[in-house]
Specification:
The complex is a heterodimer of chains A (455) and B (136).
Chain A: H1 2-9, E1 16-20, E2 32-38, E3 41-45, H2 49-59, E4 68-70, E5 83-85, H3 88-101, E6 105-109, H4 115-128, E7 131-134, H5 141-150, H6 157-163, E8 166-170, H7 174-177, H8 181-186, E9 202-207, E10 219-222, H9 228-239, E11 247-248, E12 253-254, H10 255-267, E13 270-275, H11 277-280, H12 286-299, E14 304-309, H13 316-327, E15 333-334, E16 341-342, H14 349-354, E17 360-364, H15 368-371, H16 374-377, E18 385-389, E19 401-404, E20 414-417, E21 423-426, H17 437-454
Parallel strand pairs in A: 6-7, 6-17, 8-9, 8-13, 9-10, 13-14, 17-18, 18-19
Antiparallel strand pairs in A: 1-2, 2-3, 4-5, 4-19, 7-15, 11-12, 15-16, 20-21
Helix pairs in contact in A: 3-17, 4-13, 4-17, 5-12, 9-10, 9-12
Chain B: E1 10-17, H1 20-28, H2 33-39, E2 41-45, H3 46-52, E3 59-64, E4 67-76, E5 82-86, H4 89-92, E6 108-116, H5 125-132
Parallel strand pairs in B: 1-5, 2-4
Antiparallel strand pairs in B: 1-6, 3-4, 3-6
Helix pairs in contact in B: 1-2
Classes of the chains: A alpha/beta (455), B alpha/beta (136).
Chain lengths: 455, 136
């Protein structure tokens, strides 16, 4: 009886929700089925392991989420009893005060929330004259730099599914990082012109080590670390019919393997390159991407080739879209002078921190202390930090103001952009006891405007 | 009186990686034991492990020019000279901050050295966070 009562308390439209979009990685799988079996229980179908835990954790509500204010501002050595519980309004007021007192606040994150939240964030950055950056600057930022240099030949994942007969994964491991990429879009599904699915496709993986993805490959090329640039150029030379040495210098790859890949590329009717952080985070960074995009442009003279980055956070593409609509630049945008300046390496988060150029951090939907190099993360103790995140994180331990928010895509609606630039609606599958980050950022913006108007 | 003969350190290249377990654990929560266990692991080629005379689950010390951490070792196949550490606080302690004016630090392709541990045990998350408190 108790179970029945529990079920009747749940709103009917949220008991059995189909076609839910998973807010974890850039795949944005939009076929998740969530069937509620109790107040904080649900059966979750079709999600990968990570997506499963994302939904499960949000549905299985733990302790009540509390707004927190640091007791003693500036003292970040006492992590455990350092916070007081506070009302939302008090936290918003404190956040507005900290932002207004700062000369160069940095607003960072945005890749794991909706484009609506990002829109509010940019308005806030403009109002207070801050720098706004997104996680792309420590992810596919170099890819963006290369695309700005040489352009990109691209398409949606739907086109890859229907047309591609050669899939190349370079410097990425979709089996562990984008778990359903192969099964939903590239290798396994049957497409309009690839009726036999996997049998109609060849897969090449280029990486510095064997991974779960290499076992799927028709051809695996193991390249030495930091040698992708040389290997891509060897491939460009091979495609042009130039003579190569028996072993490509500095790469650990023999000529035979490069020639075999070149022949495969020429033979293919539609080739889709996907590259990951194995190219952006190694020596060469954006020049590696420059080289692979140039290879793609040249290959398009012989066959059809498209290239896509494997975007990690589920809305990192959307954040770049909104940044570009609003400011003209996709990440690392400095608005301190009243107009937009873009200079990655100067206006990007890690560089700002290492120069001690920032004096307040406003972190939304990101956990930089858990992912930045240690020396950059240490700077979080030097200045006021405001964190808006659904869960307490390692970064929130360094916060002066922590505002819990609803999980976008589970507890709040919104729009996100898939890794191929297709906007997809995020659904709400459970009710939330806290506001969304979009609402919180909008309220902080409103409070900042009130305070400035009153001066 | 016995002597402990240690294998010489191995020079290798460090890459930080996403693993399926790390992805799942970070969604469970970054303060959970699952996250701590996975992110304090180093994946190492089996032959390199033999050269270092360590077995699975042994503790090894990974050192780069910016720091060192002690991690549990897990074997991988056919990746001689390359070690992988899942993204997280342990990996961060090994990553230099230079971005070559792109905004992006080198999270992959970092020269590193792996040596046998002298019994300190896996570096704890509290120790890593303790290093961050107090600022730079």
């Amino acid at each position: 009886m108790a179970e029945e009562e529990k079920l009747t308390n749940i709103k009917p439209d949220l008991t059995d929700v189909t076609d839910v979009t998973c807010p974890f990685c850039g795949n944005l799988c939009d076929d998740i089925h969530i069937k509620r079996t109790g107040d904080d229980e649900a059966e979750i179908y079709h999600a990968c392991g990570v997506g499963y835990f994302k939904f499960k954790k949000s549905i299985t509500k733990g302790a009540t989420r509390k707004n927190l204010l640091r007791k003693k501002s500036g003292d970040k050595k006492a992590p455990d009893d350092a916070f007081n519980e506070a009302k939302l309004d008090a936290c918003i007021d404190k956040a507005a005060d900290l932002l207004l007192a700062a000369k160069k606040p940095v607003l960072f994150g945005w890749a794991s929330t909706s484009v609506e939240a990002t829109r509010e964030g940019i308005a806030l950055a403009e109002e207070i004259g801050g720098v706004i950056d997104q996680t792309s600057s420590v992810c596919h930022g170099p890819s963006t730099l290369a695309v700005q240099d040489v352009g990109i030949s691209s398409c949606t994942l739907g086109t890859v599914l229907n047309h591609a007969d050669l899939i190349i994964y370079w410097g990425c491991n979709p089996s562990e990082a984008h778990m359903r990429h192969m099964s939903r879009y590239t290798v396994y599904p049957r497409g309009a012109f690839r009726e036999k699915g996997r049998q109609d496709r060849e897969v090449v993986v280029v990486d510095v080590r064997e991974t779960a993805s290499t076992s799927v490959a028709t051809q695996f090329i193991k390249v030495d670390p930091n040698a992708d640039y040389e290997l891509i150029h060897a491939l460009r030379l091979a495609m042009k019919g130039e003579e190569l040495p028996d072993e490509i210098p500095g790469t650990g790859v023999i000529k035979k393997k490069v020639m075999k890949l070149a022949q495969r590329l020429k033979r293919s009717k539609f080739c889709a390159f996907f590259f990951g952080l194995g190219l952006t985070m190694t020596r060469g960074r954006h020049r590696n991407i420059d080289a692979i995009l140039s290879l793609g442009a040249e290959l398009n003279k012989d066959t059809k080739v498209v290239i896509r980055p494997m975007r990690g956070h589920y809305n990192v593409t959307g954040a770049a879209e909104v940044f570009t609509w609003q400011t003209g630049y996709p990440f690392a945008v400095d608005l301190t002078r009243g107009y937009a300046r873009y200079n990655p390496g100067e206006t990007s988060l890690v560089d700002l921190l290492m120069r001690d150029d920032a004096d307040c951090l406003f972190i939304v939907a990101s956990d930089p202390v858990a992912h930045l190099p240690k020396e950059a993360a240490r700077r979080f103790s030097n200045m006021p930090v405001i964190v808006i995140d659904p869960h307490e994180t390692i970064t929130s331990k360094f916060a002066d103001v922590y505002l819990p928010c609803a999980v976008t895509g589970v507890e709040a609606e919104g729009t996100a952009y898939r890794m191929d630039g297709v906007p997809i609606r995020l659904k709400k599958v459970i009710n939330s006891d806290v506001p969304s980050d979009t609402d919180i950022v909008a309220k902080i913006l409103e409070r900042v405007k009130e305070k400035r108007g009153g001066k | 009186m016995g002597f402990l003969i240690l294998a010489p350190p191995i020079k290798c290249t460090l890459v930080t990686v996403r693993t399926a377990r790390q992805g799942e654990a970070l969604e469970m929560g970054k303060l959970t034991q699952e996250y701590r266990d996975e992110c304090s692991t180093v994946l190492m080629d089996e032959d390199d492990m033999n050269r270092l005379r360590v077995k699975e689950d042994a503790i090894v010390k990974v050192t780069t020019k910016v720091g060192s951490v002690e991690l549990r070792v897990r074997p991988t196949m056919n990746s001689p000279g390359v070690i992988a550490v899942p993204l997280g606080p342990w990996a961060n302690a090994l990553i230099p901050t230079d971005t070559s004016h792109t905004g992006m630090p080198s999270y992959k392709g970092i020269p590193a050295e792996v040596s046998t541990s002298m019994g300190q045990g896996i570096t704890s998350l509290d120790k890593l966070l303790g290093d961050l408190y107090g600022g730079a």
